[in-house]
Design a protein that fits this description.
The complex is a heterotrimer of chains A (about 475), B (about 220) and C (about 1000). Chain A is mostly helical and about 475 residues long. Chain A is built from 17 helices and no strands. In chain A, helix 3 crosses helix 9 and helix 4 crosses helix 5. Chain A has a single domain, classed as Formate dehydrogenase/DMSO reductase domain (Formate dehydrogenase/DMSO reductase fold), CATH 1.20.1630. Chain B has about 220 residues and is an all-alpha fold. In chain B, helix 5 packs across helix 6. The radius of gyration of chain B is 28 Å and the shape is extended. Chain B is built from 10 helices and 1 strand. Chain C is built from 35 helices and 37 strands. Chain C is globular. The chains are: A mainly alpha (about 475), B mainly alpha (about 220), C alpha/beta (about 1000). Strand 1 of chain B pairs antiparallel with strand 1 of chain C, so a sheet runs across the interface.
């Protein structure tokens, strides 16, 4: 068994040789052991209980707030005329954005053969699912009469009424739900082999049955693997365009309107970049502690952090560029309303929020030009948290400053969130972390099967690359991807 | 790790294999069933048509409008002038029933109302939602017969709702009024049938009278 | 539907049969009809009807309301709740259920009547509209008049008589009171009325006047005093000085070319404000190529000042001096004036001097068509001098005429109340009957009237509410609301109107006349009898004349004939000599009646509380207004609470900075801070009366202003926060294109000035939608005519069931008004130009709101209306975000939750009452369009221009709003859309609004020196 020293710097690019993606003594068995052990601990640590308790009670707060909201009406929020959209939409866009990293990592990086993704994709996909759940919550509760939401669905009815297909909100409904469905399938399917592993290792009957059902009778036969890989490839191909489409559609909610500060063609790319930016930041925010707590340094190596940091740097710079170009366009278009809106963002009553956004998103990530910031987990964690904050404020700036001062000065106004707004926002984090902690407790947080394909022991690092997913030497290769494409 | 040939290794009995196909069938049929259920159960055809409340006075339209052949407008006097086809005041009943069946027990509530001046609490049969503003006079003027919406009231012992009165039902006629139009002076004729093809007959009436039924929302909702 | 009007009486009374027990009508109807009290009152009020009355006509509507509230309560079966139809047992002749009727009546404020038409729906009055036949209305109605409906249905009106003895409160019946009255009358007979005093609110009712005279005959030693906190008695006294006897001035703006107003809010704060506004608005359109010019000098910014071409901000105390300066300039320019009238009070070249010079120049040009007007808050001497100047200009007979005073012998209000207070203090008054009014709250502070009142052994108070005064009186009598009672009243010009009830008194109140009659041993006579008696005595005409008066709302040729009083120059000179500049320095406090609440009597009216002040857009509050400079000097900002003290008394009020207010002046509105005003009035504003004395009722000199360090959030409908400099600058930049304006001269030179914009010529890239409807509705709003009074807002609120949301929600920008009046300041904050712009839904042809609604709840009609369908709306509020005019209103709560069943009866059944979570907005009064359309079709005739008038257009005093069919080239609105001044707001967005604005015209004088005449 070859053993790569745990402290090896695998971030260097040495021509001619492939940097190991797994460090330390890692044969197939040890990986299984390392990952499954997390889900198999007889009882979770006190820290887990502490975290779970907090987030669960925050979730309760969320439900309490929803109850109050439905009972009393939207007036319990801070929204008003002219600022008719507030926290609900801000949080929606924020969470959808976060929900981007997962599918990007698992689908796009998969198609691009970024093998380092294997250690983190499971994790990132889980985060995606939970983020999209939180995101989906907000549009659902932000309408005045939620009990009539089904009118957004094109169902035949005695009124002979259809939804208005011109409305971006309707596109949203379809875009987000599609994205959620595909991501969910992708995540679950990828998990099947690992679930089977857990099933086979299970000691108690309950676990055997539970994991057994979840594993859908996976036996790891050649046919299974074959079908699995095809399906996985297919879903990856399906998911890839969605990664771009979802946030483009979300951006249409703003871009299609004619409000100064919303009505901009740059929005789709700008939003997608921002989404990936925030998504990766959130992955890091969660990954770095988990890696430490569950001692996964050998699987999630500095190289992984480094790569993600680079993506954050890239997308962050794109976002920063968009901020600047927005100003240029506002000035260059000669549209007085547009130019005032941006002046007002930078210097008006809400300037503070603009500068928080700008600092967190455009300036702080620039530190990642330095290796030290990319590879010191602590520093990286801090930066990623800043990015999360910044990206939330980006949405605040877009929604609130544009609405609060549009065309007629007579109807300019101000918006302040109420305690209900704040607790609802907080509660959504509660929901997110509750789900996430349950994931950590019961599911394989690293895609064992896939990681195994990149350990030296798999013998796949030798010779020309043979594509993804050949795990067991004894399985005859029935196909070759290059020819399939 | 357990070895392959160890007994009791399988958690799931053999029949577990049936679950998947079974599940598949359920997943397909259940939604279909639910849709059909909601569709039929929720449609106005089920909920509204045939609504037939008991009235405080067993007034028989079959007798008055049918056998006696009284014109609708003898009682519902305002129908040509106003949005509401007003229910007649007790006076109107007593015009005849002072003499006719002057002390029939079934007319007791009427006589009481006449004496006390308190109204007879009739139950509303054709009840549109509050946000739908229907105007009788406009429809009569256009030549929509009473029977078109209320059915053959002259054959009903107890009045009941015969059409859904749903938005779609209204729109059907507003989009294509021709088959339902008749000469305005004949609106109250219960057994009226168009000479020849109703649609053709209606088309001529519509063009003559310049009837343009609107399907704008605010025609009915304000 | 105004014929058959003695039936109207029947309607009113029948209608009310049920409602008269409004407070408990949800009990069984049997009980209602059976209740002896009810039968008994019917017997004595309308014997001839007693039989029929047992079948209240409005039971249907009551049941409707019940059904509605049941539905609201959610008591629904699997189907929707079983609704019952309650037909009449006896339907009145020719009465069609569900078809509204209009009845003519009159409402009175401060002794002047306003003729109105009231729309009654199944016996429920639901809307007050102006009466075109009435000289003071001309078809328009003020905010307070329109809000009278809400007042009548106010569940907090006093519902019973109250007897307060030694701390305990009992509820007697009217019989108990009548007993007291007769016994009291008997005792008075003996003493000839000694020790008896009546304190009445001002009324012009001939009936009351007749009863009063008889009362004074019977009890010669009694004391009758009339008091109104807001009165025009200074004017009366001043003219009495000038002419040797009181006369009433009537202004004729239709003939005026140059108007010089000092503190005269003649377009808004005048009993004939509506009439003035009508003529002003007509003339300012400059259709004939000329338009009048107005000079206004005032301490506080008023609607009139905002409309003026030249405005001078000047403390109220300086007006006399300014008027003398004007006289001086007139004399210098060659007008023959007695020597002592004029005087040079201001340094040459000072703004005041320049203002006077300019005005004098113009006045001389206009001569008989000039007019000098002085406001009611100015001391009599100023009025005397003004009268003199009008005489000298020869304006009498053209722009001003004089009418006889209805009661020449009457003591002025301030003297009266002071005299009464003195008598009470001496204890020479044992019995005081207060008929209307609220003196314990609004009498001059130094009289300490409340204490005197409490000390008086026998006190009776008749009023709508159990208010501050009632609580200090032994007896409180519930008063019948004008919409519930018979009576009569005279307009400012003397025209008599008969006041007829729309409904039986909801809470069994009685009228002022009835109470007086009781004292005169005529308790048996109902208000109806008394009114008819007066009518017969004074106007004869028998039943026919009576019917005519009822149906027209006015008694033909009952107006006073103008007098030609002789001016006494010496008296004027004597008065003028007294007019000096007050010593410099010191802050002046200017008290003024609130634009909405008047003297405070309307404080419990939600509509008026929430109606933004035309200038400050403040709602639910009054505030100490300061000029920007003064605010800086006192180091206070918008919202800081300051303590204002004068004469040992002080009040604390939040500061509101108002550009254009005179320096050294603090403005404060009366009418707020009621202690016993009701739930609506509670907590709204602060009471300014403690600073008000008989000596200085309006302008208090030497008031001390100090900061308290506390702050109060002011709920303004605009500028929801102190706006930063960046925003200020931008607003300044935009006003010009939003409200386009030009001087008359510039307009003559370039009539198309408003249209010649790059955008107006630009064409959109896409194909424009064409509409196929047989009509194409549109609106035009003339900014030259609009004076920003806000009457349209209330009219809309009443017509369209618009909820009141309250102070907190307004502060959060959640007011619901469908048509708001945007107010902009432009230019120098010390002397700004004020611009108003009514903003209803523009009904854009390319409506941005429509494309974004996911459920198609807002779509376009074939007739070009932007339809909002409440029952389809799910409330995403996306439409509001995308509306560049921000005219959409969202129901953040169920705004009708708290509304009492009584108040629900004021709803307009033709308009859906919107629930929680739906968007709403202006509909161009679609219910009126549909009603007119169907009526026309039923009559087999085409719609005529003018058949359809939206509520806002109907009540607009200046006729600034015009609605009609754009497809008809001859319609008024088409003409206006073709008008050179017509322009669409934010046209660069290509929303293609169906509402066009007509650019504002101003008529400033050419700079001093070559002062050319206005025409």
């Amino acid at each position: 068994m070859s053993a790569v020293p745990l402290d090896l710097d695998n971030t260097l690019e040495r021509p001619g040789e492939r940097a190991p993606l797994v460090l330390g003594k890692s044969d197939l068995a040890s990986i299984t052991e390392q990952v499954c052990e997390i889900a198999e601990r007889p009882r979770p640590s006190r820290e887990w209980w502490l975290a779970f308790g907090t987030s669960a009670s925050l979730t309760l707060v969320l439900f309490a707030m929803l109850g109050y909201l439905f009972w009393t009406g939207l007036g319990v929020w801070g929204i008003n005329q002219p600022v008719a959209w507030g926290f609900a939409i801000i949080n929606f866009v924020f969470w959808v954005g976060i929900g981007h990293a997962g599918t990007l990592i698992s689908a796009i990086l998969f198609l691009f053969r970024q093998k380092w993704r294997t250690s983190i994709n499971r994790f990132a996909e889980a985060m995606t699912i939970f983020a999209v759940i939180c995101a989906g919550l907000f549009p659902a509760i932000h309408v005045g009469r939620p009990w009539f939401e089904y009118w957004l669905a094109p169902l035949p009815n005695q009124m002979q009424m259809w939804p208005n297909f011109r409305s971006p909100l309707l596109w949203d409904v379809f875009a987000v739900s599609t994205y959620f469905t595909v991501s969910l399938m992708f995540w679950y399917m990828g998990m099947v082999p690992d679930l089977a592993t857990l099933r086979d290792r299970a000691r108690s009957k309950i676990r055997q049955i539970a994991y057994g059902i979840a594993a859908l009778g996976w036996r790891g036969s050649g046919r299974h693997w074959h079908r699995y890989e095809r399906a996985y490839l297919l879903l990856a191909a399906l998911a890839t365009p969605l990664v771009l489409s979802v946030h483009s559609v979300v951006s249409f909610d703003f871009a299609v309107s004619q409000l100064p500060g919303w009505h901009a063609t740059i929005f789709p790319p700008y939003f997608v970049a921002g989404a990936i930016f925030s998504g990766f930041a959130m992955v890091l925010t969660l990954l770095i502690p988990v890696r430490r707590i569950f001692r996964l340094e050998s699987l999630i190596t500095p190289r992984h952090l480094d790569n993600m940091a680079k993506i954050i740097l890239a997308t962050g710079s794109m976002v920063g560029y968009s901020y600047i170009i927005e100003f240029f366009i506002a000035w260059y278009s000669g549209n007085p309303y547009e130019s005032f809106t941006f002046l007002n963002r930078a210097l008006g009553p809400y300037a503070w929020s603009y500068w928080i956004m700008f600092t967190c998103n455009a300036i702080i990530p620039q530190l990642l030009w330095f290796k030290r910031f990319r590879q010191t987990p602590g520093l990286l964690l801090v930066i990623s948290i800043f990015v999360n904050i910044g990206m939330w404020f980006e949405r605040f700036v877009i929604v609130v400053t544009s609405l609060s001062r549009d065309f007629l000065p007579s109807s300019w106004g101000v918006y302040w969130p109420t305690w209900v707004d704040l607790l609802t926002f907080l509660g959504s984090f509660g929901l997110f972390f509750t789900l996430f902690l349950l994931f950590l407790r019961f599911l394989p947080i690293v895609a064992m099967a896939e990681v195994k394909s990149v350990v030296p022991a798999a013998g796949l690092e030798l010779g020309p690359h043979r594509g993804h997913g050949q795990y067991w030497g004894e399985i005859p290769h029935q196909h070759d991807e290059e020819n399939e494409r | 790790m357990k070895s392959v040939d160890e007994p009791g290794r399988f958690v799931f009995p053999a029949w577990a294999n049936l679950i998947r196909p079974a599940l598949a069938i359920v997943l397909v049929t259940l939604p279909a069933y639910l849709v059909v259920l909601v569709w039929l159960g929720g449609s106005p055809k089920t909920t509204d048509v045939g609504y037939r409340p008991e009235q405080p006075v067993p007034f028989s339209h079959a007798l008055h409008a049918g056998q006696l052949g009284m014109d609708c407008r003898y009682c519902h006097t305002t129908v040509e002038r106003a949005a509401f086809a007003a229910i007649p005041p007790t006076q109107t009943c007593m015009n005849c029933h002072k003499q006719v069946r002057a002390n029939s027990p079934r007319l007791l509530p009427v006589r009481e109302s006449y004496a006390s001046g308190l109204p007879i609490p009739w139950v509303k049969v054709h009840d549109l939602p509050d946000y739908a503003y229907f105007n009788h006079s406009a429809h009569l003027r256009a030549g929509v017969g009473c029977a078109s919406c209320h059915g053959r009231v002259d054959t009903m012992e107890v009045v009941q709702q015969v059409h859904t009165l749903s938005m779609g039902w209204c729109l059907d006629c507003h989009r294509n009024p021709d088959p339902h139009l008749r000469p305005p002076e004949l609106v109250t004729v219960m057994d009226w049938v168009a000479p020849g093809d109703p649609a053709e007959h209606g088309r001529r009436l519509r063009e003559a009278a310049g009837i343009k039924p609107s399907v704008d929302c605010w025609t009915c909702h304000r | 539907m105004r014929q058959g009007l003695d039936r109207s009486m029947g309607e009113g009374s029948r209608g009310s049969g049920g409602l008269s027990l409004g407070k408990r009508y949800w009990r069984s109807l049997e009980e209602l009809a059976a209740s002896p009290a009810f039968r008994e009152r019917i017997q004595q009020e309308f014997p001839e009807l007693a039989e029929e009355l047992v079948a209240p006509a409005t039971r249907r509507s009551i049941l409707k309301v019940m059904a509605a509230s049941l539905a609201l309560a959610g008591l629904t079966a699997c189907r929707w709740p079983k609704e019952r139809i309650m037909p009449f047992a006896y339907r009145p002749e020719g009465y069609v259920p569900g078809v509204p009727q209009h009845f003519a009546t009159a409402l009175e404020l401060g002794g002047a009547a306003l003729g109105v038409l009231v729309k009654s729906y199944d016996g429920r009055p639901i809307k007050v509209e102006g009466n075109p036949a009435h000289p003071s209305s001309l078809g328009a109605a003020t905010a307070w008049a329109q809000a009278a409906v809400l007042e009548m249905y106010d569940p907090e009106r006093s519902t019973t008589l109250v007897r307060r003895e030694g701390g305990q409160r009992r509820v007697p019946t009217w019989d108990d009171f009548l007993a007291l009255a007769t016994e009291h009358a008997a005792s008075l007979q003996a003493s000839g009325g000694a020790g008896f005093a009546v304190l009445a609110e001002a009324t012009s009712s001939p009936t009351v006047l007749a009863l009063k005279n008889r009362l004074e005959e019977q009890f010669p030693r009694g004391l009758w005093v009339e008091y109104e906190p807001v009165s025009r008695d200074f004017e009366r006294t001043g003219l009495a000085q000038a002419f040797g006897g009181p006369v009433r001035p009537r202004l004729h703006l239709e003939r005026a070319q140059v108007i010089v107003g000092l503190e005269s809010d003649l377009l808004f704060g005048h009993p004939e404000g509506l009439r003035h506004a009508r003529h002003w608005g007509a003339a300012r359109r400059a259709e004939g190529g000329t338009m009048p010019r107005m000079y206004a000098a005032e301490a506080l910014l008023t609607v009139t000042g905002a409309a003026a071409d030249h405005r001078l901000a000047l403390p109220a105390g300086h007006m006399g001096a300014l008027l003398r300066q004007l006289a001086h300039e007139l004399a210098r320019a060659g007008l023959a004036l007695p020597a002592g009238w004029g005087a040079e009070a201001f340094a040459p070249g000072s703004p005041e001097a320049r203002f006077a010079a300019l005005a004098a120049g113009d006045l001389l040009q206009a001569r008989p068509h000039g007019l000098v007007v002085v406001g009611p808050a100015q001391p009599p001497e100023v009025h005397a001098l003004a009268a003199g100047l009008n005489e000298a200009l020869g304006a009498v007979g053209t722009t001003v005429s004089y009418l006889p005073d209805p009661e020449p012998g009457r003591r002025s209000h301030l003297d009266g109340i002071a005299r009464l207070a003195a008598a009470l203090a001496e204890g020479t008054v044992q019995a005081l009957w207060i008929l209307g009014g609220n003196p314990a709250w609004d009498a001059p502070a130094e009289l300490d009237f409340a204490r005197l009142l409490a000390a008086c052994p026998q006190t009776v108070h008749l009023s709508l509410y159990d208010n501050e005064t009632s609580q200090l009186c032994r007896w409180h009598l519930p008063r019948a609301h004008p919409l519930e009672s018979w009576g009569d009243a005279r307009a400012w010009d003397g025209t008599v109107s008969v006041v007829q009830p729309l409904i039986e008194p909801l809470y069994g109140g009685r009228t002022l006349a009835e109470v007086l009659a009781a004292l005169l041993g005529e308790a048996a006579l109902s208000a109806h009898d008394l009114t008819r008696r007066t009518f017969a005595q004074q106007w004869g005409g028998g039943d026919e004349g009576w019917r005519r008066a009822l149906s027209d709302g006015v008694v033909a040729n009952s107006a006073w004939a103008p007098l030609r009083p002789r001016l006494n120059p010496e008296a004027v000179e004597a008065a003028a000599r007294g007019l000096e500049l007050p010593p410099a320095g010191g802050q002046e406090l200017v008290l003024h009646p609130d634009a909405c609440l008047h003297d405070g009597r309307f404080a419990n009216n939600g509509w008026l509380q929430e109606l933004p002040d035309p200038i400050t857009t403040l709602t639910w509050d009054n505030a100490a207004t300061l000029s920007p400079e003064d605010a800086q000097n006192h180091k206070v900002r918008h919202g800081d609470v300051v303590r204002l003290s004068a004469g040992g008394r002080s009040v604390e009020a939040p500061v509101l900075v108002v550009p254009g207010q005179a320096r050294g002046v603090v403005g404060l509105a009366l009418g707020f801070g009621r202690q016993a005003g009701g739930r609506v009035a509670a907590g709204a504003g602060i009471n300014a009366y403690p600073l008000r004395t008989a000596a200085a009722p309006w302008a208090v000199r030497g008031v001390h202003v100090e900061r308290t360090g506390r702050r109060r959030l002011l709920a303004t409908a605009q500028d929801h926060h102190v706006i930063d400099t960046l925003g200020m600058a931008e607003r300044g930049r935009r006003v010009g294109s939003l409200i386009r304006e030009a001087s008359l001269a510039a307009y003559r030179a370039n009539p198309e000035f408003a249209r010649n914009t790059a955008w107006a010529k630009a064409r959109p890239l896409w194909k424009e939608i064409e509409f196929k409807g047989e009509h194409q509705w549109g609106m035009a709003i003339d900014l030259s005519a609009c004076i920003g009074c806000g009457a349209c807002t209330i009219a809309c609120q009443a017509e369209n069931n618009i909820p009141v949301v309250g102070r907190k929600q307004v502060a959060n920008g959640r007011e619901m008004h469908w048509i708001r009046v945007d107010r902009y300041f432009a230019g120098d904050p010390a002397d700004p130009e004020v611009r108003f712009q009514p903003m209803p839904c523009q009904h854009c042809e390319n409506a941005p709101c429509e494309s974004v609604c996911p459920v198609a709840a807002t779509v376009h009609s074939e007739e070009g209306l932007n339809q909002m369908v409440y029952n389809r709306c799910v409330g995403t509020r996306y439409c509001s975000n995308n509306c560049p005019y921000k005219v959409r209103r969202f129901n953040f709560f169920n705004n009708f939750k708290g509304v009492s069943p009584t108040t629900r009866m004021a709803f307009n059944p033709e308009v859906t009452v919107r629930g929680r979570g739906v968007m709403e907005k202006c509909t161009f009064c679609i219910q009126r369009i549909e009603t007119a359309r169907i009526a026309a079709k039923n009559e087999r005739r085409p719609l005529r221009d003018g058949d359809i008038v939206p509520a806002c257009a109907q009540t607009c005093p200046t006729r600034a709003i015009v609605f009609g069919d754009l497809k008809d080239p001859d319609s008024e609105v088409s003409r206006l859309h073709r008008h050179p001044r017509a322009y669409g707001i934010l046209e660069e967005l290509f929303t293609r609004p169906r509402t066009l604005y007509l650019a504002k015209l101003t008529n400033p004088a050419a700079p001093a020196g070559e002062g050319e005449a206005s025409s």
